[in-house]
């Protein structure tokens, strides 16, 4: 049986929801990510990147990276049509997914969650705390700009990459839900998208499993 490694508050929620949406047979293992479990030897032996989501598949092989796992699940359950097969639809889906992962998450929220990973690291900035404040401010700017870029799409369509649910919605959902948790107001169309996602049975089930409801 497939096994998803996840941690509270993480982006792994998007993959957990996807497993529910496709009706996969899977189990999960919760990691204390905040407590450093992703960097402890037992987990590093599974995923040397020290990150969730991590998916161990039926044959024991390990798949990492949100976009890769989501793509593989979508292609493994083609009847769910969660990744368009036409060139334009596939490219648009990956376009949104990559922007969420690489920019809004990787450059924006990462600065808020892990300011120490971004400069400046000099003694003066560290002593005054100014360094991490400016890193977080930059993160916020990247996030707000990213949300503003995606918002018009959601004014025209119900979903992140058009008129149907795709793997891009799972990615957009996880950054949308981080917004209010970090004092960020989502643009109106993303607020509506977040609400639509929260209303999905798969999302409700996963949030229950994560102990949020
Ligand atoms: N590029 C990775 C990023 C995954 C990632 O940043 N995961 C975070 C949680 S949202 C994590 O595992 N953090 C633990 C750590 O860095 O120690 C992906 O797309 O899957």
Feature tags:
213 residues; alpha+beta; Glutaredoxin; Glutathione S-transferase Yfyf (Class Pi), Chain A, domain 2; 4 strands; binds glutathione
Brief rundown of the structure:
It is built from nine helices and four strands, in the order βαβαββααααααα. The chain has helices spanning 12-22, 41-44, 66-76, 87-113, 123-128, 130-156, 167-181, 188-198, 201-209, and strands spanning 2-6, 26-30, 54-56, 62-64.
Could you characterize what this model shows?
With 213 residues, this protein is α+β, with helices and mostly antiparallel strands. It has 2 domains: 2-81, Glutaredoxin (3-Layer(aba) Sandwich), CATH 3.40.30.10; 87-200, Glutathione S-transferase Yfyf (Class Pi), Chain A, domain 2. Helices cover 57% and strands 8% of the residues. It has helices at residues 12-22, 41-44, 66-76, 87-113, 123-128, 130-156, 167-181, 188-198, 201-209, and strands spanning 2-6, 26-30, 54-56, 62-64. It has a 4-stranded mixed beta sheet with strand order 2-1-3-4, covered by helices on one side. The protein starts with a strand and ends with a helix. The mean pLDDT is 95. The chain binds glutathione. Glutathione binds at residues 10-11, 33, 38-39, 50-53, 65-66, 101. Glutathione (GSH) binds at residues 10-11, 33, 38-39, 50-53, 65-66, 101.
């Amino acid at each position: 049986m497939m096994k998803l490694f996840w941690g509270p508050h993480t982006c792994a929620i998007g993959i957990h929801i996807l497993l529910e949406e496709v009706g996969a047979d899977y189990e999960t293992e919760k990691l204390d990510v905040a407590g450093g479990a992703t960097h402890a030897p037992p987990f590093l032996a599974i995923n040397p990147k020290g990150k969730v989501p991590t998916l161990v598949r039926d044959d024991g092989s390990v798949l990492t990276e949100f976009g890769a796992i989501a793509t593989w699940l979508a292609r493994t359950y083609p009847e769910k049509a969660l990744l368009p097969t036409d060139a334009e639809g596939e490219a648009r889906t990956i376009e949104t997914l990559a922007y969420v992962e690489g920019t809004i998450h990787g450059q924006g929220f990462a600065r808020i969650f892990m300011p120490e990973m971004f400069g400046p690291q000099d003694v003066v900035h560290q002593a005054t705390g100014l360094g991490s404040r400016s890193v977080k401010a930059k993160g916020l700017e990247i996030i707000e700009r990213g949300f503003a870029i995606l918002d018009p799409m959601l004014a025209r369509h119900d979903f992140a990459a058009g008129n149907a649910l795709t793997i891009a919605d799972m990615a957009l959902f996880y950054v949308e839900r981080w917004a209010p948790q970090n004092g960020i107001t989502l643009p109106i169309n993303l607020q509506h998208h977040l609400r639509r996602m929260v209303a999905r049975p798969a999302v409700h089930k996963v949030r229950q499993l994560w102990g949020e409801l």
